[in-house]
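Researcher: For the annotation table, I need structure tokens for DUF1092 domain-containing protein. Please keep the output clean. Sequence:
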Amino acid sequence: MKIWQADFYRRPQQDASEQVLWDLLICDRDRSFQYEANCPQSEVNSSWVASQLQLAATVEGLPNVIQVFRPQSLGLIEQAGRSLGINVEPTRRTFALKQWLQAKGYPTVVDKPPPAPLPENLWGEEWRFAAMSAGNLVEAFAELPIPILVMPEFLLPINLGLASTVSVPGVVIYGGKQSMRLARWLQQARPVALNYVAGAPDGLVLEAGLVDRWIVATFEDAEVAAAAKAYEQRKQQSRGLHFLLVQPDDSGLTYSGFWLLQAE
């Protein structure tokens, strides 16, 4: 599968004639292919983007997927992709593209809204911190009949170079009767990372989609706060790898969803 990463964004500086320009940058995941074009703001539209995608594809052909990390770029690139039959994937994990943008001095940090509470009808009955050795993590869940199982290849412990004895932290949510509904909602939200945020009260905040943030839980208990700090410390030792598991109860008989996570 051929995957491109693309950004179409207003250039931070005007050109010599004080004209506002938009830059289109396209690359593949190892930057062996790069394409760059710009246009005046007055010409910015999805047709222009589509024409540039076709020009970029003159040598190797169009991609199957275009990954986009910037919300402001997404709409135009989606429209252009739709007209050419290309699937556009919103994702924060456009590492090669961000590296290229940073080398050019362009911003890659996206403004994020304050975290919002999860919808009340999705609240689980209980949750807890957990941990599992890197050597057992994939084997423990990969073969189970879990309806929603998200284990990206690049997040597998072996591909992160983690020793099998490293403890990978996670959060388990017991959803009760809402378990499958919660798992489906999370899948649509596209989880990225689940972070402990100290405050009054403390909380667990889910980073999802391109800029979304959701409050999964809040707590004031000192013991839970200590466990949350240990969770974050384990993340440092596991190169940021952690997991989210949703299941109806603690029987271990059925599961609803499992995600490997890592902050971008």
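Researcher: And a one-line annotation?
Model: The chain has two domains: 3-103, 116-261.
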